[in-house]
């Protein structure tokens, strides 16, 4: 194994006062390969004030991420890292700190109480520390997997980035506790797919759907709704790409944006621009739910595969569009104006295939429920072989993107494809899913679904803050488990979901009564939410509910639209039998980790300049 | 961190023929600390022929084990390592091999098919390779925990050591597959407790209970029974220590030995020496079950704590003893004679406390059952607060040793002490338990049990080879879950165990019928084993049985002897409530692992001499 000879340059300097700005002047440690010459394609502000800005790139060949952290107005140091759900406890951190004399960069972890400890193995590897006019730039890298049990495993899906600002020197790393710092989190898809950008047709035109110079409300959360319409006589086109337009200076404010098309049945939609929960909002806007484009913080442009596009315009397609912008304004900034939106790239030269969106997962029904006080309860919805056999074309479909969706208690979502009783492939998986960060994600590799395949979507919920069962439904306090998959060629199948057979659920309530004191009313008048509300939740009723959902037959919604089923018998269907599950891949430890430093790196610090 | 400068000496030599004996002449790599000057207190033959002999010591301060492997009649190399249950696949291996030119020592792992791969991190560290008149001696060390996900974690309890003999050179490590080698396993408690040996009283005398020059049968497994008796008029004494006596040359043959005392009620027991399953065996021997001493392969002398001894002799104590020797003779050696046994050290100066043995875990009853085809099904028995409150002295008891017991499907056993609803301490735990290796183990730290404490004993079973449910009971094809704890001062409490309430089990059978096709006869004539035999085992009936055992009230046996309960209500007792569980300790990775070599070590080889 080749160990490149480390080069290290140093410059003596002096540390000023405890709260002085300090400056890292020189390269502190340049180990391993030189910093990549390629630019950083991904960039995101970490804090609402934009003091910390992260840029990164991903090397799938080396299985590592290069990070470039820009720190504006550096005080006495900074923490940056990752944790399971964005908490600053049990986090995996890169730390730049000073003891008032020297400054150090090290790989650390925070314990359950937020106290920092140095990792025995240093996996955040500092490559360069540089002063620029904008601020201090730290360049460092981290392997996806370090095999240090304290470290975060960088996986596909959402990553919760965390940060903290050190305002003063600390005598040692162990003296730092995150609970005493200004800290925060930012969600991002760190491992962006490495997909070649398909060429755009020569006749590509653009259309901007933007907020009309909105005055952003000075409240933490605003969903802004704006209605616009396609030009008169706009014929059928294919959207082939779209990208965000974020008003300069508002990068930390604009959390996500979506463009919806209204239902074709609507003759007209009155103009509107205002908060989506406003009483002034036209009722018809609730019929504007067909997604044309969706963007969330950290996402880049979305390209359709070369052979497909999303149809809009022309007969049978509404002229009315709804833009929804989620402003996240925790600092309650006043008077900020915004014209962010989405730029659609479309072509009149229709591509070979129309793209479609299909809904997988659970039917929105209270028969699927989560007991309260569960740390990780799993519900699963099935798109059965019978449905795919009937509704998919003989050549199958290709899923190229996916948007996962739950309400507030969702913590993980995964869809797996099974064929012949064997799990074959993961369609999409997010083990750090957050209902506050739902983006359409391109799949790293498109997934082909054939007639007879089964698609299994499982969601994991945390109901530790709930007193009663959480039932399925449309309400924000009810739950969903959905994967909107984007695919081509478009088929009539819009919805392939399931829920437990209601008769078996009634058997469950009878059984609970038999083992307890007949708390659950099993009379016909009782509604399922009422029945769930009266279940005495103990280890038995919890486990048996989970066992029921893993055993009882299901009702399948194999639908052309939300109300129209394909012909056939869809009730009391057996659960798909799965003989062989996909194995979790064994974590691959970086081969070269013996070369990382065993302790923190000393960083030469310049003092002075307050 | 100090890195001792590695010293390496080499000597050129030549390799003879592919099957020639090769000799490692010189120290190959001497890294880290020098080999320990202390001798190796533990020693065990690995293979039935005694070609491989392992000695080891344990450093709890450094959290590592030094191994000294003696290889007699070395051919082209040797594998040594550990695996979950003694299989040669998915094993963690140290490998000495030659490609015909050079020889190498490396840390490797075998995949599911037995093929070897080099570990990215080399944690078996070779300290010395030396030729002695007896054979080649390899000295190497391994941390308990390496944090390499392919590596075995060395824990308390049983460790399955594995070995393999390389008969010929291999072009590379990857060319080796364990399925083509002569291999085997040996079970051992690797992490022996580090307890100071208590001094023996000056009047200590010894008594040998030995097999009477037995001709060992030429079959793989023999349990030999031999009846002997105490001298006439032998008064009450305390056993304070015992140790094995193994006939020289039979070290690999004698697997375990136990000395039992017969029931005091027996007037006399006829003499006998023969296989325990012989038709000639006197029926009364089944009343000789009170353990006085037990030894298993790899165990050393057993010392009672300084303030306690095991009473035997005198009025109320049978004069008759039964020695049981398990001969393990896989090579079916003919004509071997054996006089192995146990030497008891006893004193007439009775110590302050009598030691006692108490049985924790599950009652022997078919109501506790394991479905077939389970990979890891857990049953739990409770010694409740009500029982310890009633039966233990106000000052409590101290448990100093433990013998875990299940029948053939047992894979893990653990006893945890809980107080005030919180798990406090592990009494004994074996995550690699084997029913073929049951020894009395001294606890690393004696456990105090007070009035009102709860002792929870859980056993994990694997029934993948069974077609029908495995019910609790005495039969070898039935199951047990028992921890015999050795403690002082002796109390009247001999047995503190539980089983599920039989009425709740009948509710379970009703429930199964409701969700299936009424397969289980719930009429009063049906026996519980018959009922379990007719359960349709599907995911629901399996999970609900597990949920029932985790929820339903229990019958508690809080007994003075197997038939006499303490006074009180012991049926329909609630399960102990546990609010807080002990956390699994996070694996501690060796701090210095950055210093281990990144690849195999070249070992200089001398050829020649066949």
Automatic annotation (TrEMBL), chains A, B:
Residues 50-166 form the DOMON domain. Keywords: Catecholamine biosynthesis, Copper, Cytoplasmic vesicle, Disulfide bond, Glycoprotein, Membrane, Metal-binding, Monooxygenase, Oxidoreductase, Signal-anchor, Transmembrane, Transmembrane helix, Vitamin C. The chain crosses the membrane at residues 12-30. It is a single-pass type II membrane protein. Its main location: cytoplasm. It is an enzyme of class 1 (oxidoreductase). Its cofactor is Cu(2+). It catalyses: dopamine + 2 L-ascorbate + O2 = (R)-noradrenaline + 2 monodehydro-L-ascorbate radical + H2O. PROSITE patterns: CU2_MONOOXYGENASE_1, DOMON. It is found in: Cytoplasmic vesicle, Secretory vesicle, Chromaffin granule lumen; Cytoplasmic vesicle, Secretory vesicle, Chromaffin granule membrane. Residues 589-610 are annotated as: Disordered. One of its GO terms (cellular component) is extracellular space. Pathway: Catecholamine biosynthesis; (R)-noradrenaline biosynthesis; (R)-noradrenaline from dopamine: step 1/1. InterPro entries: Cu2_ascorb_mOase-like_C, Cu2_ascorb_mOase_CS-1, Cu2_ascorb_mOase_N, Cu2_ascorb_mOase_N_sf, Cu2_monoox_C, DBH-like, DOH_DOMON, DOMON_domain. One of its GO terms (biological process) is norepinephrine biosynthetic process. It comes from the Eukaryota. Its EC number is 1.14.17.1. One of its GO terms (molecular function) is dopamine beta-monooxygenase activity. Catalyzes the hydroxylation of dopamine to noradrenaline (also known as norepinephrine), and is thus vital for regulation of these neurotransmitters. Homotetramer; composed of two disulfide-linked dimers. Belongs to the copper type II ascorbate-dependent monooxygenase family. This is Dopamine beta-hydroxylase. It comes from Rousettus aegyptiacus.
């Amino acid at each position: 194994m080749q160990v490149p000879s480390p080069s290290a340059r140093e410059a003596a300097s002096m540390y000023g006062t405890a709260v002085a700005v300090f400056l890292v002047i020189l390269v502190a440690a340049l180990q391993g390969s030189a910093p990549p010459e390629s630019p950083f394609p991904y960039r995101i502000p970490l804090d609402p004030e934009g003091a910390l800005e992260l840029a990164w790139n991903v090397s799938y060949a080396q299985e590592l991420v290069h990070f470039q952290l820009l720190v504006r107005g550096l005080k006495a140091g900074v923490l940056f890292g990752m944790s399971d759900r964005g908490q600053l406890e049990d986090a995996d951190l890169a730390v730049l700190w000073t003891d008032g004399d020297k400054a150090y960069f090290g790989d650390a972890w925070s314990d359950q109480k937020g106290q920092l400890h140095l990792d025995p193995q240093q996996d955040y590897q500092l490559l360069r520390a540089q002063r620029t006019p904008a601020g201090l730039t730290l360049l460092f890298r981290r392997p996806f997997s370090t095999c240090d049990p304290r470290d975060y495993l960088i996986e596909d899906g959402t990553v919760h980035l965390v940060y903290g600002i050190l305002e003063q020197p600390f005598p040692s790393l162990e003296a730092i506790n995150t609970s005493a710092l200004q800290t925060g989190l930012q969600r991002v898809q760190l491992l962006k797919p490495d997909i070649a950008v398909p060429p755009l047709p020569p006749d590509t035109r653009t259309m901007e759907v933007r907020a009309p110079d909105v005055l952003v409300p000075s409240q933490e959360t605003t969903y802004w709704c704006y209605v616009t319409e396609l030009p008169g006589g706009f014929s059928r086109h294919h959207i082939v790409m779209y990208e965000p337009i974020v008003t300069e200076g508002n990068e930390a404010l604009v959390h996500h944006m979506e463009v919806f098309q209204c239902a074709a049945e609507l003759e007209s939609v009155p103009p509107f621009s205002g908060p989506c929960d406003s009483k002034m909002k036209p009722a018809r806007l609730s019929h504007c739910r067909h997604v044309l484009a969706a963007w969330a913080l950290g996402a880049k442009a979305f390209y359709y595969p070369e052979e497909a596009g999303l149809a809009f315009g022309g007969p049978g397609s509404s002229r009315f569009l709804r833009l929804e912008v989620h402003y996240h304004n925790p600092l309650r900034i006043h008077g900020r104006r915004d014209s962010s939106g989405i730029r659609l790239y479309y072509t009149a030269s229709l591509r070979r295939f129309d793209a479609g969106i299909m809904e997988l997962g659970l039917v929105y029904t209270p028969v699927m429920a989560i007991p309260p006080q569960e740390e990780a309860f799993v519900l699963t919805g099935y798109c059965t072989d019978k449905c795919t056999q009937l509704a998919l074309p003989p050549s199958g479909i290709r899923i190229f993107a996916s948007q996962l969706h739950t309400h507030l208690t969702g913590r993980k979502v995964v869809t797996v494809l099974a064929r012949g009783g064997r799990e074959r492939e993961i369609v999409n998986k997010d083990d750090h899913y957050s209902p506050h960060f739902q983006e359409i994600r391109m799949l790293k590799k498109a997934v082909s679904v054939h007639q007879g395949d089964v698609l299994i979507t499982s969601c994991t919920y945390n109901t530790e803050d709930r007193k009663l069962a959480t039932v399925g439904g449309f309400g924000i306090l009810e739950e969903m488990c959905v994967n909107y998959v984007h695919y081509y060629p478009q088929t009539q199948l819009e919805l392939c979901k399931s829920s437990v057979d209601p008769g078996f659920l009634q058997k469950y309530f009878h059984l609970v009564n038999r083992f307890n004191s007949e708390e659950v009313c099993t009379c016909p008048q009782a509604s399922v939410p009422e029945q769930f509300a009266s279940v005495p939740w103990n280890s038995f009723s919890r486990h048996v509910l989970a066992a029921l959902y893993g055993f009882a037959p299901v009702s399948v919604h194999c639908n052309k639209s939300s109300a129209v089923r394909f012909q056939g018998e869809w009730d009391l269907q057996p659960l798909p039998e799965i003989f062989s599950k996909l194995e979790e891949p064994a974590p691959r430890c970086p081969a070269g980790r013996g070369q990382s430093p065993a302790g923190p790196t000393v960083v030469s610090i310049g003092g002075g300049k307050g």
